[in-house]
Each structure stands twice: as C-alpha cells, then as structure tokens.
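With this grant's support, the team has encoded backbone shapes as discrete tokens. A representative record is reproduced below.
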Amino acid sequence: MEYDADSTALIVVDMQNGFCHLDGSLYAPGSEAAIDPVGDLVDRAHDAGMPVVYTRDVHPPEQFDDAHYYDEFDRWGEHVVEGSWEAEIVDDLPVGDDDHVVVKHTYDAFYQTELEGWLNAHGIEDLLICGTLANVCVFHTAGSAGVRDFKPVVIEDALGYIEEGDREYAVDHCEFLFGEVTTSKELSFA
C-alpha cells in the first residue's frame, strides 16, 4: 500500500514510560516490544517528509475526583499523572522538532483535543496508526478517526498490547468496522 506523504500522517499512540517501561505502573511487555517497530515507522515517515503525531495520555491528579461513572483510576489504578516520568514518551522514540504532540485525557485522541483541527489544517486524509494499547487507545482513536472521515489504517505489527488476544481483537474489529489493517512491510510512501 502506497500513501502520499503530503496527505497522510503517522499517529503514534501513547508510547509512554507508564506503558512501555518496566518501571511503569501499566507496563506490558507487548508495549515495550512495540518500541522498535514504531521507531522504524517514525524514521520512515520522517525520511518521506510525512507528518508524525504523538499522543500522550495524561491525567491531572484530580481528573476523576467528581466522576459519576467514568474513572480510569478505578479501572487501571493511578497512571500517567500529569508532570510525572510515566507520562513522558519513551526515550527510544525522540520527538522531532517538526512532530506534533497531542495531550489527551482519555482513550480517544480526538476527544476534547486539537487533533482533528490540526489534521484538517495540514490537509491530512489518511492516518497510519500504531502504538499502544491496541484494544484501548489505538482502537478508540482509530474508530474516532473513521467517524470523522479520516481513513484509519492500523499497522498491526507496530501495536502494543497486554495479551496477544487483545491485539488480535483490536485488529479484527478495526478492519471489520471502519478501516484497514496492514503491516509495516506492506507500506510505502510517495
């Protein structure tokens, strides 16, 4: 599959210390294993002149204090708290000067962020999506992209996960519901 670097962006979802580093509170070996494949995609995108967008899942300590139902700290425990080491992108994926970083406070990178406006302002139509966790933030971001009329393409060999079945679930549902799935090897950039 060939993608136009002028109308495509690589979206790197939540490759942060809290998920990818052994000392992270939500560390998963599958997330750590995604670092090198994601890094290779970032390098290829940079070489092609394709925009790279990193998302960071960040929670202010008081975010869920008044929650009625939705409380990620109840579900996952306290994680990637604003200003913490956990909330930073892993050192192995240095953010370039021209890369865009989106701070989000929930699973969906479009929800109450500037991501959609930034993509539209840059003429982006197709999104190559990688990162972690496959069945949580990657899945919700890809679905949200699709309903906003961006073409989400999930890169299945560059996804972090807790259990292998989580990745398989996300890949199957992304392909069935709203997008395409491919591998790094099948990608080329024009």
